[in-house]
């Protein structure tokens, strides 16, 4: 019996030693540079997050305004980049006249003075609406942005024209494969360098269609992220990166990150080697909504000198906490 167990024990010990050395800090690559900041929704009005559902009208539960910016507008995006964002997230809907409207909600009733499903309108109709119409912080007694958002809903092509050299994360709001086909056709007309500055996330069906049509585009969906991380958990200790992780936006909850093989240096380098970008998000507790890295306390949960991506709802707070700002011309200082 001892003759059988000794080789097995030795093999286990050797594998454990290999896994430790292959993923431990002693062999971790030294990655330099500041973190990449992704501003979720850009600079936007914040709202009470308690008890949110997919149908919650967040404009009706706005917190007292601290600034005049509305999400998904050119002004908000510009302010986000000026505050220190490297990437700004925006939401899109196809329109009846063949364009993509940049707007968060599935319907118009909550934020605007319009009615109905957003994608059942033309871009011309949408740009006549007041996107600040429904915002209130006091239960409807006052509407501080009413009348100030007329004509401020941009189209995706307008955003890329205004910011030709900036990076964006595009959110497809549906799980419709046809929408993936439509966006793939539109993005396929862009030069490869312009497409390389874009990432897309959304439902499993449109993202699968996009990945099949545009293999150079970084994408993620709930299903593709699960496939990537589960496979990496199974054999990432070997340094092999699952093909499911290639050309992805890899979103990692801050409470899950320390359990990933080789976190942070090895993990970041391995994902970079397959063309993927890693962004840490807020802690995951099994619910439908995930937060960002939004406070200095959240930042403190990251390793010292962390050089990867950070998704935040509070770009001004996080950029300031990291000592990052923008100089004239868009360079960090």
UniProtKB/TrEMBL annotation:
Signal peptide: none annotated. It comes from the Bacteria. PROSITE patterns: GP_PDE (PS51704). InterPro entries: GP_PDE_dom (IPR030395), PLC-like_Pdiesterase_TIM-brl (IPR017946). Residues 51-322 form the GP-PDE domain. PANTHER family: GLYCEROPHOSPHORYL DIESTER PHOSPHODIESTERASE, GP-PDE DOMAIN-CONTAINING PROTEIN. This is Glycerophosphodiester phosphodiesterase.
């Amino acid at each position: 019996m001892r003759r059988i167990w000794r080789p097995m024990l030795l093999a286990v010990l050797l594998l454990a030693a290999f896994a430790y050395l292959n993923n431990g800090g002693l062999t971790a690559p030294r990655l330099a540079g500041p973190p990449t900041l992704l501003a979720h929704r850009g600079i936007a009005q914040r709202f009470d997050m308690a008890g949110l559902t997919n149908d919650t009208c967040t404009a009706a539960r706005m917190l007292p305004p601290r600034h005049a910016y509305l999400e998904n507008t050119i002004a908000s995006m510009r302010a986000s980049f000026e505050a220190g964002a490297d990437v700004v997230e925006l939401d899109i809907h196809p329109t009846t006249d063949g364009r993509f409207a940049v707007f968060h909600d599935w319907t118009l009733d909550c934020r605007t003075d319009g009615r109905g499903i957003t994608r059942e309108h033309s871009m011309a109709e949408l740009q006549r609406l007041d996107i600040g119409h429904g915002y209130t912080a006091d239960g409807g007694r006052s509407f501080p942005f009413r009348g100030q958002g007329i004509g401020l809903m941009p189209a995706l092509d307008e955003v890329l024209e205004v910011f030709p050299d900036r990076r964006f994360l595009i959110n497809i709001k549906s799980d419709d494969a046809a929408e993936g086909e439509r966006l793939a056709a539109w993005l396929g007309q862009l030069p490869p360098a312009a497409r390389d500055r874009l990432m897309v996330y959304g439902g499993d069906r449109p993202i699968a269609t996009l990945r099949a049509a545009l293999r150079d585009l970084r994408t993620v969906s709930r299903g593709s992220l699960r496939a990537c991380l589960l496979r990496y958990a199974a054999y990432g200790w070997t340094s092999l990166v699952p093909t499911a992780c290639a050309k992805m936006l890899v979103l990692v909850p801050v409470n899950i990150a320390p359990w990933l093989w080789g976190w942070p240096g090895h993990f970041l380098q391995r994902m970079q080697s397959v063309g993927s970008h890693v962004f840490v998000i807020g802690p995951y507790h099994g619910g439908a909504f995930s937060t960002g890295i939004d406070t200095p306390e959240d930042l403190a949960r990251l390793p010292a000198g962390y050089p990867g991506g950070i998704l935040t709802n509070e770009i001004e707070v996080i950029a300031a906490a990291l000592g990052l700002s923008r100089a004239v011309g868009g360079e960090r200082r």
